[in-house]
Amino acid sequence: MAKNEPAETDIPRTRGSGTQSVYTILRREILAMTLAPGSPLDEVRLSERFGMSRTPIREALLRLSADGLVTTLPNRNTIVATIDFASLPPYFDALTLMYRVTTRGAAMRATPQAMGEIRKRQAEFAAAVAAHDAFAMIEANREFHVAIAELAGNSYYTTFFARLLDEGRRILRLYYRTFDDRLPRQYVDEHEEMIAAIEARDVERSDRLAIKHAEQIVRQIQDYIARDLGQPIDLAAS
Amino acid sequence: MAKNEPAETDIPRTRGSGTQSVYTILRREILAMTLAPGSPLDEVRLSERFGMSRTPIREALLRLSADGLVTTLPNRNTIVATIDFASLPPYFDALTLMYRVTTRGAAMRATPQAMGEIRKRQAEFAAAVAAHDAFAMIEANREFHVAIAELAGNSYYTTFFARLLDEGRRILRLYYRTFDDRLPRQYVDEHEEMIAAIEARDVERSDRLAIKHAEQIVRQIQDYIARDLGQPIDLAAS
DNA sequence: GGGCTATTTCCTGTCGACAATATGTGCAAT
DNA sequence: ATTGCACATATTGTCGACAGGAAATAGCCC
Questions:
Q1: Where is the HTH gntR-type domain (chains A, B) (predicted)?
Q2: How far is B104 from chain A (nearest CA, A)?
């Protein structure tokens, strides 16, 4: 890399936007796995990259740390949070529960006009699947479920669920990396069923669909992990 | 206040402990309602109080902001987060759900030695009730339920639940302020029942007790709010 | 040559200062 | 008296610099 690499933004940014933009960019890169888990995040290097002082960088890292996306090693450095496969079963439990609670809640409060946002997200999801764009699909999936959670109208659930879904984005990214373009049309159909059940205000059916949807995802990822861990380890590489 | 008020700590603190201690102290004061909701938190004044520069103060405030305990008004100041009574119903929903999930989970994984921590917390809770110490009781109650959540072994639930319980501490503080020393022995008994059900690994009974316990708390606080809002407002005070 | 210790180096934690912005205040005009 | 604008003030957002710790390196003793 050249010595005087121009910073990411040379236009003088507005006051207060520094932390925000760094946070948003790093967050996106972490979730997209552009920044691999465990990668060191050097404050000085980041400040050079973004063309600002270390202070806004530090604040962005602090926010990421609160989100659980990075780990701060005191007096040493900050690294991208690693993915702990041991805690996947609890993760799936929590995810399933939130799928259920938010879908049930949405079914209880569904109104015709409130379905618009959800349908829009579903359309984006379907488009991403059709375009074989795994990244866009994962993002649209998150937005779809968050939209349902917002309809349910409990901000505690929405916040917690959004966090779980974000954490899951990295795992899904690992998962879909293995079969790049064969994205599951099945999820699109399941989403459609959920929309129908919510719109019909059928709470119990929504609940069953949420469970089914969650089980689907959990099973697929567990299969992937089992397959992956079953593969012979290349001892020579160490 | 004197001009050269000595700072809270004059001993030179160890590197990295600045942010941590400020965070801990402010957090405690906010949860104990020593710092009233809406109180302004001035960085300069805090830096004078704690005898350190604004930087560690800012980082502590940032962490509190991530916890939802303070609200940052951009380019203006930071205030202690207000209590939004409108969002109490969703809060109670979430709290009840987490009571249930963690108690069920604990009942599924109960082992004789794992009950020790829970019993210890319950003893502290009972002692606080006997001593008519509302603050200690609220804190012990939180620790009791977090201990159950930890036995359940799902860190996602534990984290979320702990956050909910913390947020509830301020509401409970409002509540118990009204009848200072008449602390409900009833909760002690309910806790005992829960311990027994968990130890017996009776999941369904644990669940029922969790629901009952949650309903109890919700009802009492709702009564309190209804009573409070029903009281005539002293217009002269404005 | 190997293990222990001193030194160096890199990076973070903290500091004081400056710049930008929002609120409050005073004045003038209607 | 009230509204609008300019100014003053207070508080945050950002910066560059320095100091303290931990890992990496070099030196020393065996």
A1: 16-83
A2: 13
A88 touches chain B (CB under 8 A): no
Residue of B63, B93, B94 lying closest to A66 (CB–CB): B63
Domain B19-80 has CATH 1.10.10.10: yes
Residue with smallest Cα–C1' gap to D15: A53
Q: Where in chain B are all domains bearing CATH 1.20.120.530? A: 85-228
H or E element in which residue A166 lies: helix A155-178
CATH: 1.20.120.530, 2.60.120.260, 1.20.58.100, 2.130.10.10. Which one for B85-228? 1.20.120.530
Catalogue the long-range contacts made by A181-186 (C-beta closer than 8 Å, 24 or more residues apart). A181/A132, A183/A128, A183/A129, A183/A132, A183/A134, A183/A137, A184/A129, A184/A220, A185/A129, A186/A216
Burial category of B229 from C-beta neighbours within 10 Å (exposed 0-12, middle 13-18, buried 19 and up): exposed
**In the beta sheet, which residues pair with residue B80?**
B70
Residue A132, min C-alpha distance to chain B (Å): 32
Q: Which nucleotide is nearest to B72 (CA to C1')?
A: D12
Look up the pTM and report it: 0.90
pLDDT per residue, tens digit, chain A (238 aa), is 444 455 565 566 888 898 999 999 999 999 999 999 999 999 999 999 999 999 999 999 999 999 999 999 999 999 999 999 889 999 999 999 999 999 999 999 999 989 999 999 999 999 999 988 888 999 999 999 999 999 999 999 999 999 999 999 998 888 877 666 567 788 899 999 999 999 999 999 999 999 999 998 898 888 888 877 666 655 554 3
**Strand D–CB A18 distance below 7 A:** yes
User: A160 at the B interface (CB within 8 A)?
Assistant: yes
Number of A/B CB contacts below 8 angstroms equals 56
Whether the CB of A13 is less than 7 Å away from nucleic strand D comes out as yes
